[in-house]
User: Fold this.
Amino acid sequence: MANSHGNSHSEAAKLEQIITEFYAKSLQIVLESRSPYMSSRNYSGEQVVSSPSSSSSSSSSVRPRDKWFNLALRECPAALENIDLWRQSNLEPMVVDVILVQSPLDSDQVNFSLKKDVFRNLTMKERDPFCSNSDQEEFGCEGKSEKIIERWVVQYDSRKVRDCSSSGSRRSSNSSLHMFYKKSILLLRSLYVTVRLLPAYKVYRELTSSGKILPFSLAHRVSSFVEPITRREEAELQRFGFTPVDTPCGRLCLSVLYCPSVSDISSESSTPISPQVIHDYVGSPLADPLKRFPSLPVAGSTSHGSPSSSPFARRHSWSFDIYRSSPPSASFSPSPTHSEAHASISNSSSRRFPPTCLPPHPPETTLVHKKDTSFDEYYPSPAFSPSPSPSPSPSPPIRIPVSHLSKALLRSESAPVNIPEAKFVNSPSVSNKQNVPPSPPLKTTISSTSRTDKSLGLIQTGTAVEKSFSLGKEESRQHLGLKISSNSSLPISLSRSSSRSFPDDFDDSEFACAFDVDVDDVTDPGSRTESFEQKGLLCEPLEPGGLFPVRKSQDAAVGALVLMLRKAAPLCQDFSNSASLSQVSNPEAWSDGIQEPERTSEGPVPIQHVSSPSVMSSGLNVPRTTADALEELQGYREMKNLLLKQGSNSHI
Amino acid sequence: MNCEVCQLKELEVEHFEIREVLRCILHTIVFHRALGLVRPKDIDLELFEITYVQCGDSELEKKIDEKIEQFISWVEKHPNKKSQICLSFYEVKKNKQASWFTNKIERLYWEHWYINLNVAQQARTHSSKSHHSKVVVDPGEGALDERSTRRAALEASLREVLFQIIKFVNEKKDHVPPIPNLEAVVSFPYEITIPSSSDSAFGMDIIKRMLQTGHPTMLS
Assistant:
């Protein structure tokens, strides 16, 4: 057992190295499952295995690092930054705070702010090493509330040197080192599992798995000292202590204080938003859509509205994106493709969405038809497909950008015009890559592809961003129209809000993004979950927003229409009934119906009227048939009704 | 060497939940005992909002699934019984020649995990709800409520079990033998014993286990 005394130094060095690596590994484990934008989850299983995603600088180092504790982890940039700092300050305690950042604002506002925050965060991260947290630290500024939901403490309590060097310890230093190493492996294994069982992991999953824009986010802070927590906060926290591991010279301690009720927060906030947004969008879109008839079916076709809709701008903010693309009209052609893409995407993620897509974009008809086959049950797709081919084209431009981006973007909603820019800004790289070339604007979607699985279309976007880029490129194209919207789910919510009250305030760009997002959401996720809820919600919000926006800018209106169309698709599922009805008569109605199944009753007819003019400009021209026109008219009527209602309610 | 035993809290499951619950528990345990180079794989349960971790070893995955299928078929033959599955880790003892006379190389068990399940009778739950309804929503609201309540309770219990595993792993580290094989993901030999298997070929193991631990492997 006894090792030579000479070894003691090296032993000590080894011990120190193990401890240092333990710090690094534990930090990596924690952040990997708490830092939404760099999580392995985004990469999915592949990451784990290959860690390709992390590719960045770390990739090269992966191997050696993975060997430590026989635990190969995906590279986590946030952790790496901090780890380097920690290597220098060896054996100081390491405190990792996981912070839940929530915006105090209403859901709408929240969404917007979130988006902004996201952007900031992103930038911040890059700049600030300390902010390792991904996204949220930066937020703090805007009145958002931060709450520490987890505090991980890694600490090494060393005995005095004498103890260490005592004969007893020396004797078995070698074996004890092995023992220590083995135990630290066990400790890290249990940490790895524990991190995924704590409530905060649900928050993380929501952030990464859904395309939705959420009113909350996770940030982290790594420091060497414990920031005081108020008693009140502390009272809410529970402690889980891992059994310390004894070393020859001390003990390695790991513990966590966590908030048991965190998951509630996330779940509550997330769901409501998306639905609401949808409604708004619908309303606004409706107005626009009417004008845009052609587009209606093609929610994506925002383009239709875009031109005419300047007044609508608010709602259309998202539509604006669309508009952007649409105005160019040329984009239209592309858009259809997008829509198709969306449809396909939506199918994958959520079948329902596709239908929405279909209706909007007549050009896509082929696609639509395909979709129809699958979706026929729900959607009257056929009708849709014929009608608004034009509209679809515009949609692509919408792109709605990557989910992540979209979040930020979403907020921007306000100015339709800007929106396009915003989108670009946010997702420039993404959009470029993924999307459709045809529609410059195509924000399409990054997120959409990301994860359908979770049911939340929205979620997908967020996580997906990275994925979406990779995954999405193909899909994104498909989704661009629809899926994108899904990604933007968060944005959608934003859009609603924006349309109502905020639109003006917000930057155009943001709004646009938001809208786009919303649209996407609607199609994908929204259709599933949100569709129902949203429908109801949307109706009200939409109306008010719709009225204003319409007046503001035709483009906006167009955008709104596009959005509605997009949204509609998702709704279709839910709305299948309504949609089918409407569809039968008018393709456009479809879109309307889809978007606002609930609404349909109220104002389909009016909407159609309103929208028709604008719509005509962009989308109508293209593919419509008389039947489509009729449908559109109905849709416009509804839109009008909605707008009127909204106007009366919220009119300025 | 000590042989530690961990009796996991009994879970009341419905038939269709057996597979997922067992996968979750077995993989979680093995992950803690797979001390080779592991690339963790997160798995989200479909029935519950729980994420567990696999160690990404296809052989292990296959073996676990096989055992689960065996167990399920056993359950079908023996309804209304509480059942137990045992996951054991051992070392192979080579020294004693005496061991050669026995039909197997001697296994020194250093850990047993007992997973206790109480498979609820389907009829008891609700005649209308057959297991096929796992994903499908039942028509009756009352049934749904009851079902969701029960599901939530099971999820909480399953989470408890997972924490029980984590705590056990944390508290009992000394008995874990040195890592014999660093190349293999699953570094220690293990076996999974289910009631049915105990009936037949595994008699020897069971006897040994009984002698060593005093806990009968077989339940029923």
Observations:
- Strands of chain B lie at 4-7, 11-13, 41-44, 51-54, 82-93, 106-119, 190-193.
- The longest strand of chain B covers residues 106-119.
- Helices of chain B lie at 18-33, 58-77, 98-101, 122-125, 141-171, 195-199, 203-213.
- The CA atoms of residues 61 and 163 of chain B lie 22 Å apart.
